[in-house]
Design goal:
Length: 117
């Protein structure tokens, strides 16, 4: 299981505390320094059954600075994936991935449902 996080993100810190408190082991990847590759992102989107737009950190500074809310609707899937793969700060975090699931963002109820069954 891999947790993609940004060290300064308070939500990521909550997710790490959640996993640690439950004794759930994971490997950590800094989403800014080592973002998911294009192939990984494509796989994550497919396996998550979520729209590609759900993977964007729409409240992030980088998203706002690039004005993506105005142009994202006109972009196709390869363009969107390339954009995400090129800048980990555009990806909604935390992102928890293993062979059975992909969780985007931290919602404790959702994580409980997936991790504590």
């Amino acid at each position: 299981m891999t947790l993609f996080c940004y060290p300064k993100c308070s939500t990521c810190k909550k997710a790490q505390a959640y996993l640690s408190a439950r004794g759930i082991s994971y490997s950590y990847r800094n989403i800014k320094d080592d973002p998911p590759s294009l192939a990984e992102l494509s796989d994550f989107v497919q396996r998550s059954h979520l729209t590609l737009q759900r993977f964007f950190n729409t409240s992030g500074q980088q998203y706002r600075n690039l004005g993506l809310s105005k142009i994202i609707q006109g972009m196709d899937t390869p363009q969107l994936l390339a954009l995400l793969a090129g800048d980990g700060m555009l990806i909604k975090r935390p992102l928890l991935v293993d062979e059975h699931f992909v969780l985007v963002g931290f919602k404790q109820e959702q994580w409980d449902e997936v991790l504590l069954k």
